[in-house]
Design brief:
By secondary structure, the chain is α+β, with helices and mostly antiparallel strands. The chain contains 9 helices and 9 strands. A 4-stranded antiparallel beta sheet has the order 2-3-7-6, with no helix packed on it. Helix 2 runs parallel beside helix 5, helix 5 runs antiparallel to helix 6 and helix 6 packs antiparallel against helix 7. The two termini are 20 Å apart.
């Protein structure tokens, strides 16, 4: 495109986009255009974004923007998260999975983690040392969170996790995974718990296939296997077992809002590309944009 989507479409600035949010979006856009867009075809073919790019994103301040500064973040709000999500879609690098890392994984730790957990994990997520994922979906249960079979059995001061997950976004790159488990299989939804696994520190964890998808190919989406994976009981999110389902229900609305924000930005980019094209493309000696039918279609 010869200009950015917002310039081509002439859309009004939303009320939530304050001056500092607009500055972040502009900075993120320029960074993505310089650091990700030139290599995006490479990442799409490899079906994964280089971890070094995550580190650079951390250095640029694009990771954990709404996490308080005391935990290594930028101290912003969800508006700042949205600005980055929109920038990713406007630049056309939607497979760069920092949206999930920022707006889904980090908030679970921020809202439900202990002070020790926040200080242990969030600063490293903000630098890109840790890449986040959340493992909900299972081969037999799909996204039915009450049907999760992955178990976490307490053994002294550890949990022993067994089970498998699939379609896990960031699954190949992630080394901090929030795992949806059953700590009490007989209790239904009330037996669900969220347990954090740092994959660099455990035995028994395996990554399966990086799944082939129709789109967003550079956003690695994986099978994960947990075979007697032992983690400290201190990795439980929340003050007690059985809170996982409530935690998921509290966070899912924000996750869905993130998807919506990204989808709208994708539409804006698609429309901007179309407008840019019909202004340049000529037929019968005139730009295609000059034809009434083209204008009807775009309107």
């Amino acid at each position: 495109m010869t200009a950015r989507p917002v310039e081509i479409l002439g859309v009004a600035t939303p009320g939530w986009e304050t001056e500092d949010v607009a500055m972040l979006k502009d900075m993120a856009t320029k960074w993505l255009e310089a650091e990700v867009a030139p290599r995006y075809e490479e990442f799409e073919k490899a079906e994964i974004v280089d971890k070094a790019v995550w580190r650079k994103a951390g250095e640029a301040g694009l990771l954990c923007p709404s996490v308080p500064e005391e935990y290594g973040g930028a101290g912003g709000s969800y508006a700042h998260e949205t600005a980055i999500i929109e920038a990713i879609s406007h630049v056309g690098v939607d497979g760069f999975g920092i949206g999930l890392h920022n707006a889904i994984v980090a908030p679970y730790i921020l809202h439900y983690g202990s002070e020790e957990q926040k200080r242990k994990w969030l600063p490293r997520m903000a630098t890109g040392e840790l890449i986040g994922a959340i493992a909900m979906t299972e081969p037999g249960a799909g996204s039915d969170l009450q049907g999760v079979k992955t178990s976490a059995r307490r053994d002294g001061n550890h949990y022993v996790i067994n089970g498998s997950k699939t379609f896990i976004t960031n699954g190949q790159n992630a080394n901090l995974i929030i795992v949806v488990t059953k700590t009490d299989p007989s209790a239904g939804a009330k037996g669900t718990s969220l347990i954090v696994v740092e994959t660099d520190e455990v035995d028994g964890f395996e990554r399966g296939r990086n799944l082939d998808k129709v789109g967003l190919k550079s956003n690695d989406t994986s099978e994960l296997f947990f075979n007697d994976v032992r983690v400290p009981t201190s990795n439980l999110l929340g003050h007690d077992e059985g809170l996982g389902f409530v935690q998921l229900m509290q966070q899912l609305p924000q996750e869905r809002l993130m998807i919506g924000a990204g989808a709208i930005a994708m539409i804006e980019r698609a429309l901007a590309l179309t407008i840019d094209y019909v202004k340049e493309r000529k037929a019968f000696g005139h730009p295609v944009m000059a034809f009434q039918n083209t204008q009807f279609k775009l309107a």
